[in-house]
Each structure stands twice: as C-alpha cells, then as structure tokens.
Write a structure and sequence with these properties.
The complex is a heterodimer of chains A (about 110) and B (about 110). Chain A contains no helices and eleven strands. Chain A is mostly beta strands and about 110 residues long. In chain A, the strands form two sheets. In chain A, strands 2, 4, 5, 9, 10 and 11 form a six-stranded mixed beta sheet that branches. In chain A, strands 1-3-8-7-6 form a five-stranded antiparallel beta sheet, with no helix packed on it. In chain B, a hairpin with a 5-residue loop joins strand 4 and strand 5. Classes of the chains: A mainly beta (about 110), B mainly beta (about 110).
C-alpha cells in the first residue's frame, strides 16, 4: 500500500468554482509535505511546502492545509480557472521521499 | 543553473527494440526516481535509487532496467519485455530523506512504440 494516498483520482469542476484535493499519508517520521502542479506533458512544479509545525500555507488561489496529528493534507483551489486544469501531486518527506499518484483536475468553462 | 534534465523529449521505438531514456541532475541529490504516467492515470514508481551503485524496484519494474554508476545519472532502459511501453516517463531527484526533501522533476519523455 502506498504511504501517500490522494483522492479523488480525478475531478471535474466548472470555471469559477472552488475545490479541495486530499492527501493522506502514513510516512513516519514526517518532515515535510509539498504539493506540485503538473500541466499535461510537462514536469511537475512545486506549489507549496509545509513542515510539521505549519498547518496552512497559501500561494495565490491555492491554499494547503496540514494536520500532522491525523496525517492529512488538503489543497484548496479558490475561484478555479481553466489554467488550473492539471494533475496535482502530493510528495511527503521522511526517511524516504514518497510520492502520491496525483489527482487529475479538469476545469470546464 | 541547477536542475534535472531528461532527454529526449519525444522518443519513438519499434516493437521488439530496447530503448534508453536519459536522466541527469546537477543538484547533488543522492536519490533519483523513475515514474511512468499513462493518460488519465497517476504516477507509478518504476525504480528508485537512494545512493550510487544501489537501486530498488518500484511497483511496476517488470520490463525495465536501470543503472546508477554515477550520482548525476540514472538512465532507464525500456526492454522488449515491457508489454505496454507507450507512456510518459518522469524522472525525479531529491535528497534521500530528512528535512531537505524537495523533489525536482524533469520535463518528461514521451515514448511511443510504433
């Protein structure tokens, strides 16, 4: 079983709507968690990073939250735009870096 | 500039041939990873290496081989034994663990078997 599980696997929303992507992990000990955005056919790029002492981090319309007690993180996207259509990957640092499989988000006009 | 480079960006292979995808990094990272991504699907780990001259199978290693003779390089060979090789391949690197765990990704190689 992967130590980083993301849900949903895919999501379709209308432009302008908000959405939340989920990342649950079992990595221990935990050091930090990053969210990446991957446009189709490109390599992922980092959106946010949080250590165990941080519980929220924003990057424009993207807000990541972290609950280190329950080992859950979420990425909230506000007022979605067509350019938000991408895969979002959760990567957790610990004794070894662990990658989630990603959530594929499609924003429709 | 520091970074991770995959080449080529597009690769075509005839059925039955082996092909090698290149991944090079100058970030002084010990750990390197190969992932496969199919349309509409998530990342699946093929192989990873935590240190030079050592590597481990991931979830879908069958039909693939790797080497890690240098810290900077982690080439992936897609062999003729791989039944469905057409996919997008991503290479990543990081420090092996602890606090410095930002993973850097390459731009990917799209392999098409013709």
């Amino acid at each position: 079983k992967n130590q980083v599980e993301q849900s949903p696997q895919s999501l379709i929303i209308l432009e302008g709507k908000n959405c939340t992507l989920q990342c649950n992990y079992t990595v221990s000990p935990f050091s930090n968690l990053r969210w990446y955005k991957q446009d189709t056919g490109r390599g992922p790029v980092s959106l946010t990073i949080m250590t165990f002492s941080e519980n929220t981090k924003s990057n424009g319309r993207y807000t990541a939250t972290l609950d280190a007690d329950t080992k859950q993180s979420s990425l909230h996207i506000t007022a979605s735009q067509l350019s938000d259509s991408a895969s979002y990957i959760c990567v957790v640092g610990g004794p070894r870096v662990r990658f989630g499989a990603g959530t594929r988000l499609t924003v429709k006009p | 500039d520091g970074g991770i480079t995959q080449s080529p960006k597009y690769l075509f292979r005839k059925e039955g041939q082996n092909v090698t995808l290149s991944c090079e990094q100058n970030l002084n990272h010990d750990a390197m990873y190969w992932y496969r991504q199919d349309p509409g699907q998530g990342l699946r780990l093929i192989y990873y290496s935590q240190i030079v001259n050592d590597f481990q199978k991931g979830d879908i290693a069958e039909g693939y081989s790797v080497s890690r003779e240098k810290k900077e390089s982690f080439p992936l060979t897609v062999t003729s034994a791989q039944k469905n090789p057409t996919a997008f391949y991503l290479c990543a690197s990081s420090f092996p663990g602890g606090d410095y765990t930002e993973a850097f990704f390459g731009q990917g190689t799209r392999l098409t078997v013709v």
